[in-house]
Amino acid sequence: MNLDEIKQYLTEKNYDAVLITRNNHFLGQDVLETENRILALTGFSGSAGTLVVTKEKAYLFTDGRYEIQAARQTDPKTTEVLCGRNETLTNWLREKFPGRAKMEYNPWCLSIREVDTLSRLLPKLKLVAKAQTDDLEPASVFAHELRYCGVEATEKYRQVVEFLRQNGCEACLIAGADSVSWLTNLRSDALPDTPVVRAMALVRADADITLFADGLSFPLDTPCRVLPLAKMEKELAAAKELTFALDEQRTPDAVRRMMEKHEIKIRPLIDPCLGFKARKNETEIRGIADAHLRDGIAVCKFLCWLEHNYEDLSELDVVEKIHELRKQQPLFYSDSFPTIAGAGANAAIIHYQPTENTNARLEKNSLLLVDSGGQYFNGTTDITRTVALGCPAKEMTEKFTVVLKAHIALASARLPQGVSGNAADIICRSVMWRRGLDYKHGTGHGVGCFLNVHEGPQNFSLHASSYPLAENMIVSIEPGYYRENAFGIRIENLARIVVDEESGMLKFAVLTLAPLDKRLIDKYLLTDEEISWLNDYHRDVLQKVSPYLTEEEKIWLKEACSSL
What we know:
By secondary structure, the chain is of the alpha/beta class. It folds into 3 domains: 3-129, Creatinase/prolidase N-terminal domain (Creatine Amidinohydrolase, Chain A, domain 1, 3-Layer(aba) Sandwich), CATH 3.40.350.10; 139-277, Creatine Amidinohydrolase, Chain A, domain 1, CATH 3.40.350; 282-560, Creatinase/methionine aminopeptidase superfamily (Creatine Amidinohydrolase, Alpha-Beta Complex), CATH 3.90.230. It is 34% helix and 22% strand. The model has no long low-confidence stretch (mean pLDDT 95).
């Protein structure tokens, strides 16, 4: 249905609104274009959005990363964009429907917690569930080999079962595709950039794992039962005597409705896979470091090429070249997300992705922001570099140096054991705040191992979860600055959380290997400690990457990494 047909449907059903999310029934942000309802209805392609359609108009809720993009991609005659920290969905619904109202939603595409929050905060709003699942495209499943994942699936199953027993449960339904992939050591080609197996898993302490999936072709030696999604309710009903753990934030409301129908006892608990998956094992740590070396080689080759060729390039040329160089690296599988390559004013659109219609030429005396990453069989990468094309303006160097100071503040910080990502966010963001600056995105996120480039439960944001940071988590550090219609700056490295031997506190060991553009750095705005950090980082990049470059590239990298 298009927007007009939805409005007609609301009139026929006597409903006031319908709530549409970008999620599929695994509640993941990664969806195929053909599954993206919000894109089809409004033209908005961002990875975060909720759409409310009323009889009069459509209202798109998104966050600060997409404020400019949403305004450009939608038609204001049919869709109003609502964005910002204070413009919440619940506040808007309360004002829009002060009396009694009915709103339809798909219980497969809204989590238990989201439904409960709406019900609790909006008691006059009646939520009407209409279940509908996507017809998934056929895809293949393959094993993630032990030499890359490090731990047998049987041991991961044992860890999860022990977690359940410690919390008084005998079973759990795992709905997150990333968790299912980690638990089973399986991956899939269903999505272009994220190799997750789009399945749900029933884990019982007294039986093997059962997977529920549609459209997937599994290897013959898959070590678990595989059933169609339509069989889930029957399997849950057969386990009705067991106490189930259920992650209310990561499980569709439709699953809870099935369980309640069969009077299954539910205990709200965090997905047991999340903590185990976030803390990388020794094999993963070695593999991730190797993947970042390979990625660093590709990115350094790209930056050298860019410096010598930028005057004849477009944004799409940049996207193509960095993919080509990554593809040449051993163990490369795919990009880890569509490359963000913003030239000039386009870089101020935080998650801008060039298309044939928006493709801009690279211009002299401007900035280029490139946010990209790779999926390797032994690790996942994510890096952002902002590059001066020619001679940057003074404002550009000043703002870049402030962003660098913010980055170094967190990268060199020590954090007490047990602290959450909110504290890390403030360490970084406060450097910007002191100068009256800010950025409309989180400071960092977790990263998987040949899995999601955005992984929880850890993240660095003002609204970060309370989940404590821990040793061997992989995180990004990525402050930025964006001036609409002018330029954008972001500096992003990935790091592993390690324990400082002297203090016992947590600190960051940088994984990403590529130089920062010294032409954009005003060293007189840096402290001696900040200059020392930067020089040490560049020395590490030069030492590790240089042996894999051509003579011309080595000369370029030596200059790019020379002391400030």
